[in-house]
Design brief:
Radius of gyration: 19 Å
Largest sheet: 5 strands, antiparallel
Bound molecules: iron/sulfur cluster
Structural class: alpha+beta
Distance between the termini: 30 Å
Strand content: 15-25%
Length: about 280
């Protein structure tokens, strides 16, 4: 995984041995998130990279951004109940993955120990059967075609339909996320202010925290540009099935340096459109 990419955050190399030695150029990314400056130094490898290879870098940046937002809420006296081990919202929302994330998750699950891998595949298959046995809204089907971008209203319709299925996340086992370290960016970016009880549909208030940058959108745009297609999203329970049906997209490669540079540009473009995340 990520053999062709080198990520350095705060000056600390996070790449793996050979890749680190292969870095020919280092580029910087500076973001100002709610007044906190985040500095990233990203090494560019010489080789070629698959779409899945960009995901660790996206996860690193995403975590730094969400940490800054959470810290800012706490310093203003706010309360966030979200933490590792709380699965109050898991299964209550549609979790979309960008194509690079879908391909990366498939690789990670395939590399898991056999028992774990088989039980995840089984759980996803059962969830996929349940989803596909229902009649989804037209907009859901359109997303697999070369469709124009889905509007917020259409997305809300698909989301409400999905929630009505009351389908627990296939990666939730005994109330614990079994892929916590590899969880989708949408899960990483989901935080609420208030009470986790409200997330369970009980009493209290849970106000969703707006993140300054949606990393799944960054990856969706990047993948769309590289593949020459429109931006796509794959819903979490259908991810493994979708990957089985798109094997050629897992193996396609691009020059790693070009991919990382464009990724950084898209992050900057999206951040500069948002008032709470500026390019420093
Ligand atoms: S992947 Fe993990 S964090 Fe995301 S919805 Fe599923 S169980 Fe929850």
């Amino acid at each position: 995984m990520a053999e062709n990419l080198l990520t350095m955050v705060g000056g600390e190399p996070m790449g793996v041995g050979d890749t680190y030695n292969c870095a020919t150029e280092v580029i910087s990314l500076e973001l100002d998130v709610l007044g906190k400056e985040l500095n990233f130094r990203i090494g560019l490898g010489k080789g070629r990279a698959k779409l899945a290879d960009i995901v660790p870098l996206a996860r690193t940046i995403c975590t730094k951004i969400t940490d800054a937002v959470v810290e800012s809420i706490y310093s203003d006296g706010g309360r966030i109940p979200c933490r590792k081990g709380c699965a109050a919202c898991c299964g209550r929302y549609l979790v979309p993955l960008s194509v690079p994330e879908a391909l990366c998750l498939k690789e990670e699950i395939s590399a898991a120990p056999q028992y774990q891998r088989e039980s995840m595949f089984r759980a996803c298959l059962l969830a996929a059967r349940r989803i596909l046995s229902q009649k989804p809204p037209e907009q859901f089907l359109d997303q697999t075609a070369e469709a124009s971008p889905v509007s917020t209203a259409e997305l809300n319709l698909v989301s409400s339909w999905y929630v009505s299925l009351k389908l627990p996340c296939p990666f939730l086992y005994n109330g614990v996320c079994t892929i916590y370290e590899q969880r989708p960016l949408a899960c990483r970016e989901y935080f609420v202010k208030g009470s986790a009880e409200a997330c369970r549909g009980r009493r209290g208030i849970a106000e969703v925290v707006q993140m300054p940058l949606q990393m799944p959108n960054v990856l969706a745009q990047l993948a769309g540009e590289l593949e020459g297609a429109s931006a796509e999203a794959v819903i979490l329970p259908l991810t493994l099935l979708w990957c089985e049906q798109n094997p050629e997209r897992a193996g396609r490669t691009w020059p790693a340096a070009m991919m990382v540079k464009r990724f950084v540009e898209i992050v900057k473009e999206m951040a500069s459109k948002n008032s709470t995340a500026a390019v420093a």
